[in-house]
Here is the input.
Amino acid sequence: DTAVSQTPKYLVTQMGNDKSIKCEQNLGHDTMYWYKQDSKKFLKIMFSYNNKELIINETVPNRFSPKSPDKAHLNLHINSLELGDSAVYFCASSQGTGKRGYTFGSGTRLTVV
Amino acid sequence: GENVEQHPSTLSVQEGDSAVIKCTYSDSASNYFPWYKQELGKGPQLIIDIRSNVGEKKDQRIAVTLNKTAKHFSLHITETQPEDSAVYFCAASKGNQGGKLIFGQGTELSVKP
Here is the structure.
């Protein structure tokens, strides 16, 4: 049973397109996150939701819009994709503020051409 | 701003040797320090964590030490094995930021048989 699952695993798209990445966790956690890992493998938080409420929004362009329909799901929609959006996007979840650690998904590799 | 520096960026050891990875954090209010292992094509996986009220924690071949005064924490892996080869990330968190983790830049560990 996959604890945090993301779809799709790979996404190749042209500049200017709109795309979505979906994330679901079956751990019963109440907090979910989106992280971006760049080509140098640096991990940076983008968003955090607790019980469907946005609690962290880290200076991310407003082309990125997260949506949490319930506490087990956190989706990421990206409008007007740019070359610089190419990265691996990781979804993660935790119970509370993560002092028992996060569980990460396996990532979505987004390539914008 | 909040920052976590991690060294070295690459580390190569012989099987059976020890490996040490060091991190320094900037925000003295940080109180939770997890370590993650990321294998190729996978998401980061929590391997050990330490809280600010503890100086050292050990789990089989892995240990973490924390020096709050110096704002340093380190990961020690003893009796390394080829399957320990991966990218390792340290991170730091404060309790009042919705679970936000600040990650170090990562260390690519290679264990040669």
